[in-house]
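Aim 2 progress update. The chain analyzed this quarter is reproduced below.
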Amino acid sequence: MKKSPLIKDIIFFLILLVVAGVSSIVTIYLISGRKNLIEVPQVCGKDAVSALNILKKNGLLAEISYEKHPYIPKDYVIAQEPTSGKITANKRVKVVLSSGKPKLVTFEIRRKLFSSVRILLSQAGLREGFLTYIYSNEPKDTVISFHPERGELMRGEKINLLISQGMEPEPLFMPDLIGKDIDEATMTVKEMGCLLGTISPGSSTERRVVKQEPVPCIRTNKGAVVNLTVGAK
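Predicted structure tokens:
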């Protein structure tokens, strides 16, 4: 049985009414929501009481936490989240208050072994900064100096360390071992205070050095590794 044109018109009209009603409700909700949005006030740098009163007057709540700060006095705002923008009423704004300056510690680590200094840094609440190594008359792996060198340091500060590598090795120049008998070349390497590395064998029974690393005349130090290749010259 076919629906009459009148019934179709009535159904279509009812659908339009429903759609219009839903659209009106959504529009009213959005407009109402926008009206309830509040501009986030700036409270950084203010004391706790003033900051809380400002948030309260704007219909916002505060979520408070504390952190130590080297400059900002106790109970003053260090940071907030969100810092700007708009939010709805009764939302929480995270507020970080200063709990005062970190505790000061006295520190002296010169001429101490670096391995011990690391432990001392941790115990004092200080952090390891940049490490610089230099040759010096001080024993190897001892701390020569540190920065900052103030009498008192704040916990959490980074400490840069200057560490001794010991006496600078006497510079050597690699001799020319090419053409020498392997036994003679080996003796020369040992007399220089260098270490014999790999010896690549050749096919000849007359074993003479045909290649060396480092190459002749290059500057090196005691303890350097010397690799040799032997064969018929």
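The CA atoms of residues 140 and 165 lie 5 Å apart. The chain is about 25% helix and 35% strand. These observations will guide the mutagenesis experiments scheduled for the next reporting period.
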